Amino acid sequence: MLLSNGEDQTQLLPSETETQVSNSDSVEGLLLVSKVYTDVAVVPEQQNNEIQHLISNLQREVEELRLKQRVVDGKRRQALSKILDIKGSIRVFCRIRPNLSKEKRRNYEPVSAESERVRVKFGGTRKEFAFDKVFHQDTTQESVFVELEPILRSAMDGHNVCVFAYGQTGTGKTFTMDGTNEQLGIIPRAIEELFCQASMDASSSFTFSMSMLEVYMGHVRDLLSPRQSCRTHEPLIKCNLNIQTDPKGLVEIEGLSEVQISESAKARWWYNKGKRFRSTSWTNVNQASSRSHCLTRINIFRRGDSSEAKSETSKLWMVDLGGSERLLKTGARGLTLDEGCAINLSLSALADVLAALKRKRCHVPYRNSKLTQLLRDSLGMILLSSLNCKYNQLLRRK
Ligand SMILES: Nc1ncnc2c1ncn2[C@@H]1O[C@H](COP(=O)(O)OP(=O)(O)OP(=O)(O)O)[C@@H](O)[C@H]1O
User: Fold this and answer.
1) Complex ipTM value
2) Per the count of CB atoms within 10 A, which of 38, 95, 119, 128 is most buried?
3) How many angstroms is it from 173 CA to the middle of ligand 1?
4) Can you list the pairs that 132-137 forms with residues at least 24 positions away whose Cβ atoms lie under 8 Å?
């Protein structure tokens, strides 16, 4: 439709708009209308050329800015890698759980806690432990998560990353990793953050997929499997997935469900579905004690925006480990006792692997447990462990 001037244009307006322009503001109204109905075809040729020129200038500027952003992104990645190298590929944090009102006895209460060390008293002696950072009793879930953000960025930059919570039963591992509806933990926050960072990154495009599994009594169970009956009453063999390592050392789990996640709400839906099938039961120490190690994996597929850019895949593992247990104290019997023993065994295998990695040993005993086999290609790069205070064997003693 071609329109030449404002006066004619008012006849073509919808009736509601006509009413608006017929009042005392009609002159302003007409100006507005003429803008709305202007067709580019009536722009004189000279102006048209100017506009085309402006557009191509802007396109050039956008291209230049993209190039600059790519350079800045490259530098940022290098800087982040350096920072993580300096800080160490394995970082250990301690989170001190507040005493719960229902608890009668105060075990291993910290005598004092500073920003990087904790002194605890037990068995008549005082012991001191050092960490990369200590989160005090009143630390919020958000503050814990903020410490992890560079690690997530590193996962998005193409590194395999593993974050896990380790500690005695009842010390708040599930609270830290999963949280509650009011106080979201690391996993739901990380899911949100990944999508947020992906939407802000103009130089790459990202897609994500998700898997969830548990290591229960030495068997690997798919928590997102459509066969939701993968529970204790099912023969375990059905839920015992095989772990394969390819010649490059990359780990793959045969038959594990992997769901595409296009938005954070969908990811949260799958996560909530998966965690419902995790094995938990009552013990003397924790009413809803995890009886397995629960692993959430997000595969990150990244593609740069230049034509020669290769696509990269990385993994972010978020692991809520089963609690190390003093079997007498938990009052475990029968199956619960067997579960506790299996958890303790695999945790000690994990401690061996971490010790070997930390000391840069040439032999790392990954094969000693399913847990360490699963995390084999993600432990070497960055491992961050969130601990909950009470004594435990991963602490570095001073
Ligand atoms: N920082 C915290 N603030 C408030 N409550 C907490 C905190 N950490 C843990 N809790 C509470 O302590 C109890 C035990 O925590 P949780 O179940 O997370 O322990 P866990 O280490 O995962 O135990 P398990 O190894 O037996 O599964 C829960 O009721 C939880 O809500």
Assistant:
1) 0.97
2) 95
3) 6
4) 132/87, 132/88, 132/91, 132/92, 132/93, 133/93, 133/94, 134/93, 134/94, 134/95, 134/96, 135/93, 135/94, 135/95, 135/96, 136/96, 137/96, 137/97, 137/98
